[in-house]
């Protein structure tokens, strides 16, 4: 039973055209509950308005409006109170209909017993209370969720501007200052700020992936790759990567362009991040195979590869390899999430020292869009 | 062929650090011979109008920041549209921004005056490439 403040009684309204019934109801329950009675719907509505009862009883058979009709009208204006019909056995079809349509919570047959009504009131109040709590919780959660999203988004954007300024300043510093010690300090600043930039960008991508609606467009592979390279985050500009691309296209491809771009950007950024130390630029082979059903993309790098014991874990949030190079631990997690939203899949084969090959499969939605 | 890619560059950006960075990178990579910094869209429009009347040199390269107070990059471009109709010249115009907002990226792609949206910090080779690829449009 829901604990209640004992000084606050449950408010109950009873509507019946027979004053005798009203009187006996009131006499029976007025000590335990705050009882309001009405012998016509107009009075009932004005009680609903001023006293906000939590439980409403109504007789089914009344001269002008039936109980079910009354409840249906109440429901439009006061959805919260729990509605209970009091009726004789003769109205079975009306009752079934009313319960199925959700107009009433339950019914009680005449003649009612005091115990029966009490149980009905207590149960109805529990329901009322639980519904109310649930609604408040949902509203709170929605509000918090919205605020959080807005917060993350604006923080990420406002952070990126000064980060970009610092990165620019470091570039200029490298042009203007050649003194060895200073250069080594600039490099360290550069590395740290790049890391920060990467993290902020990953937060933005994560946010976008969780928020953006799916938008299917025809994807042109040439444009896509170009776009991906333009989108590489500052630490990994397209100068740092050599792309070898092959396209085997047997059908037009329609898909969620934005998420496919996120997936490829992160994989290529990873290839750059994990190139072998003696490699000047990362080498990435991109193979696209498209048919009417799906697109297969193979992203093969020639970098340091992934340790066997890590292969299972790299798609987990905040997983980072042991080495210093590792980033925020968000990149591949975002990749996996984005693919999950598209109904796609990803797997990886790798041996340390030999690079890694990611194999992505995304459904071609062209069939859906043709309909 | 001049040793500079273009003669006269206009930097429109409210952030003094970014203007400094862009000036230095453009100088170093010999992209423009002369660089003028302007810190708001409104003043930039005045400058362009003066250039039409011959009171100021005509820029052949413009780097336009997106997020600026009062008049942002896209608002500036609405006025710029009218200016272009009068001027009959079309400077190379790049938008430069740290934005990650896809709506901005999309708007920039769709705006016919913007050659490309370049992310901050500026990568000079991309600017150089963008000018080269569009030199036939002049």
UniProtKB/TrEMBL annotation, chain B:
What residues bear 4-aspartylphosphate in this entry?
A: 65
Identify the residues that the record assigns to the Response regulatory domain, covering every copy.
8-135
- Superkingdom, taxonomy of origin: Bacteria
Q: Does the record's keyword annotation contain Signal?
A: no
Q: Which GO terms describe its biological process?
A: phosphorelay signal transduction system
Kindly provide the name given to this protein in its UniProt entry. Answer: Response regulator
Q: Which Pfam families does its entry note?
A: Response_reg
Q: Which UniProt keywords apply?
A: Phosphoprotein
- Originating species: Croceimicrobium hydrocarbonivorans
Q: Does the keyword Transmembrane helix apply?
A: no
SMART domains membership:
REC
